[in-house]
């Protein structure tokens, strides 16, 4: 990993991230990636040699083992926590990550993405990339993930507990392991000394399984060979034979697992797990899925300890006595205070997540097509503003949505403040600079708007939006020649830019270049059939060119889109005075269905 990152820093380009979560992006986008092929190779190898990758290749497991070793040096031996229901978390998480997106795609009738190879120019490179950190968290979140998933969870839940209660990739490898002929097997000289079980940090009852099946069948076995190395008779070995899926268990009693929680406690732990996962996943657009799984696993057990503190006379955690003979110890009182603070933090975070969820839902509904729904937009502003002001951290994504909403509601001062807050974190973002220019232009601050657009062009000369905005700003200042130049530059970068066609068409009509105006306005309504103002201006241009019949058709289409627009109605009345009624090409009742079909 270190060599990979150093190569990227020194060369500027490197192999795309060998991240298992790239499988999700490959399935969603249809782009074959190095991470996707790495995961496929690891699964194939697991189906042959068994679940070896976790112990020999996973950095998180290495951190967990390092933590267990360090705790051992401090004479702290974490006690493994065994839960019936939480063992299903990795499998459910794997289904959510890899299967659910495909099921959703099928359910809505979307086409399956065809697999292909791409480069950075396509936005997501397959094998060689300059954007190495494209789907990885920042250093702070990465270190936090390593600490919680690699260290804290081991202290609280026992060795390799993230593998048991959080890792979705381990669940996939566990499934492949059942088909693997490569397993830990036993010879005839086993004395059932149980030393193999004692050293197994994956909590597999090795001596019982080899006695009943002749091999280890538990998919939690990670083939780290600790049990083989400690066997005093050298009878344990790694070898090939019948896979565990085909083991003969007729007449053989299954190895019984022991669990630490009652069924009510299990159910309580699952409820807490779900609430914590939904609350913390994506909180402030920072916490990734795997980190949220680890936090949920830790807090679900912490909730059980808290319940026991309130209901049982004697409670212990590792070597700590928390409650003795019905009385809280100092450690128990401290832990209860910590749990109270964590509960308050979780409740606060849940409010932030709920506000962000509602605000985002209203945001997409408000901009869902057609005229802006002002009430829905105002509701989105209320929820998103609450998430920003009440949260301990501000979300860049929410701030951008607020900027869009304030702009749509023409609350220019708030819109400008929002855009400038976003630019504090991304001062060279061409999109944000263009949107700021639009706000300044609507406030009549055309020079400031031009400055924002020029900054956007310097940041991203390939983007069409800053040229369009600069053209509009020049138009509003009456500098029509410069306006045309910038708008045409926008169209060179984005040929299907309907707004640029509209603005150019309007300018050409005003300057009596009628045919050019008709050409651009016609292209605009082709790209955006429901653009009422464009159809109105096209009707005016056609009438100016003497093409009254075509103008009548377009004005009827404009009225079908915006029937309450007074200016459109007046121009239709004017055309009626110019064209005899028997020569009128179509009536509104016939135009409206045709327009709806076109849209």
Describe the structure.
The protein has 599 residues and is mainly alpha-helical. The chain contains 28 helices and seven strands. Among the domains are: 17-112 and 138-171, no CATH class; 175-246, Alpha-Beta Plaits (2-Layer Sandwich); 496-599, Serine Threonine Protein Phosphatase 5, Tetratricopeptide repeat, CATH 1.25.40. Helices cover 63% and strands 4% of the residues. It has helices at residues 2-11, 22-29, 34-49, 53-57, 59-73, 89-107, 139-157, 161-165, 168-177, 195-199, 206-213, 226-230, 263-280, 289-311, 330-366, 374-390, 396-408, 412-425, 430-442, 446-459, 465-476, 480-493, 498-510, 514-527, 532-544, 548-561, 566-578, 588-598; strands at 14-15, 128-129, 182-186, 236-240, 315-317, 320-324, 327-328.
Features:
599 residues; mainly alpha; Alpha-Beta Plaits; Serine Threonine Protein Phosphatase 5, Tetratricopeptide repeat; three-stranded antiparallel sheet; two-stranded antiparallel sheet; 28 helices; 7 strands; elongated; disordered C terminus
Shape: elongated
Kindly, what is the distance between the CA atoms of the first and last residues, rounded to a whole number of angstroms?
51 Å
Mean pLDDT, rounded to whole units? 89
Helix content: 55-70%
The major pleated sheet works out as: 3 strands, antiparallel
Strand % is: under 5%
Poorly predicted segments: 588-599
Number of helices: 28
- Trace the largest sheet across and list its strands: 5-6-7
Helix/strand structural class: mainly alpha
| Global Rg | 33 Å
Work out the number of β strands: 7
